[in-house]
Design goal:
Layout: H1 2-10, H2 12-52
Length: about 55
């Protein structure tokens, strides 16, 4: 059992997959945050344009 655990921690493929998952999660959070902040501003601009035309 202990040998299996030590072999698991020595493998690089699991660590690489975890790193890619963390990077993907960080990018997703940045995109969601940006869309949330810009979404309300874009909505206001479209409302202003629609009301002036």
């Amino acid at each position: 059992m202990l040998q299996n655990l030590s072999r698991l921690f020595r493998q690089d493929s699991g660590v690489t997959a975890l790193e890619y998952a963390l990077i993907a999660a960080l990018i997703a959070l940045i995109i969601i945050g940006g869309v949330s902040l810009l979404g309300t501003d874009v909505s206001k601009v479209f409302s202003t344009v629609a009301n002036t035309v």
